[in-house]
Hints:
The chain is an alpha/beta fold. Helices cover 41% and strands 15% of the residues. Strands 3-13-15-14-16-19-17-18 form an eight-stranded mixed sheet, with helices on both faces. β8 (283-287), α11 and β9 (307-311) form a beta-alpha-beta unit. α6 packs antiparallel against α20 (608-626), α7 crosses α13 and α24 packs antiparallel against α25. The radius of gyration is 35 Å and the shape is globular.
Amino acid sequence: MAYQKVSADQRAPGHSQYLDNDDLQATALDLEWDMEKELEEPGFDQFQLDNAEIQNLENPETTDLNLDSIQPATSPKGRFQRLQEESDYVTRYTRSAPKSNPCNFCRLLKILCTAIVLFISGILIGYYAHKKCPSSATSSATLDLQLYQEILETIQAEDIKKSFRNLVQLYKSEDDTEISKKIKTHWTALGLEDVQFVNYSVLLNLPGPGASSVTLSSSGQCLRPSGRPCSEEARTRSGQDLLDSYAAYSAKGTLEAGVIDVSYGNADDLKRIQKMKNTTNQIALLKLGKWPLLYKLSLLEKAGFGGVLLYVDPCDLPKTANLSYDAFMVSLNPGGDPSTPGYPSVDGSFRQNRANLTSLLVQPVSASLVAKLISSPNSRTKTGVCSPLELPDNDERIVNMQVQTVTKFKTITNVIGYLKGLTSPDRYIIVGSQHLTAPSSDGQEWASSTAVITAFIRALMLRVKKGWRPDRTIVFCSWGGTAFGNIGSYEWGEDFKKVLQRNAVAYVSLHSPIRGNSSLHSMASPSLRQLVIEKSHFNCSRKAKCQESNVSSVQIPGDADYFINHLGVPTVEFTYEDVKTLEGPSFLSEALFPKRTAKIEEMDPFFNLHETITKLTGEVILQIANEPVLPFNALDVALEVQNSLKGDQPNTQLLALASRLRESTELFQSDEMRPANDPKERIPIRVRMLNDILQDMEKNFLVQQVPPGFYRNILYHLDEKTSQFAILLGARERCKLLASNETLQEALSEVLNSINSAQVYFKAGLDVFESVLVGKN
Length: 777
């Protein structure tokens, strides 16, 4: 705001030298009125005059009109409200009319009365107009917090518990057809729109007609994967239970060879072993954890091993987890139908003959079988200290392992339901759970997952029936074939790839919400981390006992895989974990243990944890679906890149490129994200352009070549203990086994190209916004 001093000597040419009292009084009123209009603009809501200016106003005949020194003050009130609050406003800021001219007083009185009448009329008109025509912003944006709470308050732990128990009763079904029908019927009854089956005929690898076995050559004792004698297990367990332990898509057959303990099977372990022994066609004794299983198997395959006995060391599990006799299942499928890699399994698709995905015979076994193999009676001593299972290098053990599996085409079913958005129906927030398809599962994990997603649908549809809708479309998915390599989600993603590349905004995972009961663990893309921390803190503030928010961007099991690694969609997942499990080796979740139904109810007897997960997840879904500007943070992505480059071997070129990326995102965050905070900035075309940039920014970090089992999206770390890019860690591991560093150079090139792509992406976005603004001006 600028005001200019006016004096008798500074009047414009042609202006009268003399102003009578009436003109002076009117001029003063006009100046006050104009000044008030200026002060109502942002940043000028309040003002005050110092003593010098007050004295000047009281002596108009001898001083100039000086308005330059008016400063903003402290009260953001409107003009009329300020008049009501300050009784001496008129006396301080207006000049008294000369007593010699009574007409001036009448004129002032008329103006004052007119202003009061207009003011009262404006209030009445505004009140009734607002009452009859509520602001359009209330459709989704301005009602946010209150609306979210009203929706989430209807979620009750008791309802989730009932749903869980009903679902568990269906686990005896031979396939997922009956379960899928039950889910579809339930979702439709709740009011969800367009609930449909999406079926795919896929190649599954299932246990053979007889159970696999391991025979100790020294004693001739035959053991089942659980560690029990073959004859005893045949008498005490049913045929279906014998199928609990196998590796889907393993090679099948029989192998008799020596056992070599390779510990966790990393590059250092293999380098040490190969110096001492011939590994060709031998059987590796391999611990699960620390690195992705598919990566470790690829190293063993290259080292010449013929078979693998896979187990989980009890020392890597919490003391409360007694799984010594539990067999487990793993899948060697990186994702999707193996017979149609990279394209959907629709009718007429070419089918490749891929009965097994590795040349290795892989058999998961229990810790008790390993203990018998190495003649170790107990892994824990009397003092409670755990001794890791280990076969001495100089000990020889010969075993005969028999792996029996069969491959067949079966139909797996996804259940998909839609809640169409009001203003942006072509933008999808995808929410995914799983339902039973694994032969070794008894309904624990998937029932918990399905009960949570159903509880949120119920709460949401209660509000929809009252006339409300989200701005963006919410797609609810119950995936089939998850245990075999996330087949249902992969096939659906490949089937609708072109649509999802353009329209998918975020993926919210409900794969396995309750894995423990001691710690809330949150996984989120870097761009969603701020939102997740905010919601976690809010949830914590409502509880008497809170822990520090644990939010990370790490590889997770489940159906989020396709959306993270092939679509580059920001992803979030809330789970409850055991603290000891988080402290142990990563990737133990690749083992699917056949949990008992009582286990979930032991961890969460009142289903309060289920309720918390449902409400937290629901609040994040609602905010992503309704915020005019997507709640994604571009700067956090750049910061994550810089943090991932910290380490013992910094690359100057990468660091410089990451610094430029940060500068671009800082500028983008400060200049272009204003519509997120200021409704006046929300020009529709500008908001749409901004959301398109935020939606697609993680796609820049998808790389083409990664080691088996690694994420293609390099923003995700291997685990919470490592902060460097996983692709670089894997490349350095491989360099230990190879003579050249070519693998490392390729990985560095992939990272460099990703960072450069992101920097160019944000720079182009800034240029587009600038050209749009210039065109408008």
